[in-house]
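Hi C.,

You asked whether I'd gotten around to modeling the 207-residue construct. I have! Everything is below, sequence then structure, no commentary in between.
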Amino acid sequence: MTDLLGELRRTRILAILRGVPARHAPDLVRALQGAGIELFEVALSDSHGLPALRAIRAAFPALTLGAGTVVTPALARQAQEAGAAFLVTPHLAPDVNAFARAQGLGLLAGALTPTEIVAAHAQGSAAVKVFPAGSLGPDYFRQLRGPYPHLPLLAVGGVDASNLGAYLQAGAVGAGIGGALTRTDWSRPDWSALAHTAQELVARARH
């Protein structure tokens, strides 16, 4: 099993690819890798998800690649068959978490409240995906560190270069970043702009 927590602590950024056409997905990964991003999640919330996941896995057999927005065990199985090494949920989904444990897949379980966060960790989440982080801000993470100093938290939702540092300073082990890394016209992708954004994020993560 991938050491997800170790990789998150080392790289600090999980790139979330949502709405990326399969024909462009490997090129996006290549561009983001060139900027220093190593962890990738393909969201399965639209028709692009599974084809993009398959295309990336075929192009990068050794990549640390997960599937996101996994809300049912059936979708979890499809994700595993498409090449996902770890699963990410948007909310506490005990049946998906159990599937990940049974199949030896990595897990980043979604949660928001303290009760959900503790439950997600107990159900095998390598780091708990606190979503939507942007609605509560870095101070929420700072406050959670009081009673849960050793519980690894991943900030997801509303994180970009302007606030990434604040979440890390508040105690998050890393951040899942989607929109900032996929915002382009997919009929003619601007690879250099996407790579520049990724470079800026990687630089912020290292400070």
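If it helps when you're writing up: The longest strand covers residues 13-17.

Thanks,
B.
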